[in-house]
Design brief:
single chain; about 0% strand; elongated
């Protein structure tokens, strides 16, 4: 019985943030860097109406759109399984 519990604990501990090995960890680092860059762009624009308008006007190639996309990818990288939202 103890052996079965030890195996179950090892399986339970393998999910989440460490799942996927080195590739997924590297992807999380890339997505996190993109989220940080987007957040810095938003913070830099704070208080400057023209800069905020430029963030929204940049469209799909701007830092705001990249922040949204990278945030989604980063959150998705931490999902445990395909049924988790």
């Amino acid at each position: 019985a103890a052996m079965a519990l030890a195996r179950a604990a090892a399986v339970d501990a393998s999910g989440g943030a460490t799942a996927g090995g080195a590739y997924l960890l590297r992807a999380k680092e890339r997505y996190n860097a993109r989220v940080n860059a987007g957040a810095k762009a938003v913070k830099a624009a704070a208080g400057d109406d023209a800069a905020v308008a430029a963030l929204f006007a940049a469209g799909e190639d701007g830092p705001l759109a990249d922040l949204e996309a990278a945030g989604f990818l980063l959150a998705n990288a931490f999902r445990i399984n395909s049924t988790q939202n």
